[in-house]
Design brief:
alpha/beta, 5-stranded parallel beta sheet, 38% helix, Rossmann fold, 16% strand
């Protein structure tokens, strides 16, 4: 089988070498497309491949149509909204992600963002400590659990809301479960977002929820920009000069937010959650191993379509 790694933003060299070793050791052919400038190069490269590994590259319906022999595509990372799942399903292509491989990198960034905002973006003046503050984890998945674990080391009191995780599970891990998302926002000075972007969550974080936050509230977003209602965010931040927003996914109205709210708003120059050497390597190797296992045994454990 021919397995292609197609990454406009390349993996680390050591990750590429590791993927190549896994693929060739299993008796498959390895192919690489990096830093392509034109999507036409992507179309041409997928024409004769059986498997595809991508990072943030968009696997559109056009890519799927061009990939005449494609059987499986793996997104190296947890989020997979860059994969056109209906197009994959229509052609019988298995789509997977690699959950958990980037989780620690994202969790550490979320904590770093909290410290940055608590300390006035490292400008002069009196800041605040995280110790003793209440942190709300909005979605208690792989990343949320790690953020909670690190935050407890800072002496924070951690709450969580996730309708898919039982209260007993949270309690066993030293987390205080809440019954509703409204209760989470009303209780916690810091909220760390870890929800996916789907029809239920898009623009769900807006005026009503943010207005419930206690004084000196801070929202941390290492999830997706689509879950934020940008217009309502501006409205509540205008009304509440104590609120802060820090994000790893630059919003469409980022320039406006930066101009109006200076040190109360910060967005990373590019998405940095998974931008560590460790996460880069982990996700790449996991992708290769999942594909090799799929061809060897038919394992579809991480299938998302």
């Amino acid at each position: 089988m021919k397995i292609l790694v197609a990454t406009e933003k390349p993996f680390a060299k050591i990750a590429v070498e590791g993927i190549k070793e896994i693929v060739e050791k299993a008796g498959h052919q390895f192919a690489l497309l990096e830093k392509y400038a034109d999507v036409a190069d992507f179309y041409a490269a997928v024409k004769d491949v059986d498997a595809l590994i991508v990072r943030s590259d968009k696997v559109t319906a056009e890519v799927v149509d061009a990939a005449q022999q494609l059987k499986i595509v793996v997104r190296a990372g947890a989020g997979y909204d860059n994969l056109n799942l209906p197009a994959c399903t229509a052609k019988g292509i298995v789509a997977m992600n690699t959950p958990g491989q980037n989780s620690n990198a994202v969790a550490e960034l979320a904590i770093g963002m909290m410290v940055y905002m608590a300390r006035n973006c490292f400008n002069s003046g009196t800041g605040a400590e995280l110790k003793g503050k209440k942190l709300g984890i909005h979605a208690y998945g792989n990343v949320g659990k790690l953020v909670a674990h690190i935050a407890k080391g800072f002496g924070m009191k951690v709450y969580a809301f996730d309708p898919f995780v039982t209260a007993d599970t949270m309690k066993a891990e030293g987390i205080i479960p809440v019954a509703s998302v409204e209760e989470l926002y009303s209780t916690c000075q810091y909220i760390s977002l870890h929800i996916p972007a789907n029809e239920q969550t898009k623009k769900s974080i807006g005026y009503n929820l943010l207005s419930k936050m206690p004084k000196e509230g801070t929202l941390i977003n290492t999830a997706r920009k689509e879950v934020i209602n940008g217009e309502e965010l501006v409205k509540i931040m205008e009304e509440r000069p104590d609120l802060k927003y820090v994000t790893d996914v630059a919003p469409e109205n980022g320039a406006l937010l930066a101009e109006k709210f200076t040190t109360r708003f910060f967005a990373t120059p590019k998405k940095m959650g998974a931008e560590t050497a460790e996460a880069n390597i982990n996700a790449g190797l996991a992708s290769a191993n999942q594909i090799v296992d799929f061809f060897a045994t038919g394992n579809t454990t991480y299938k998302v379509n």
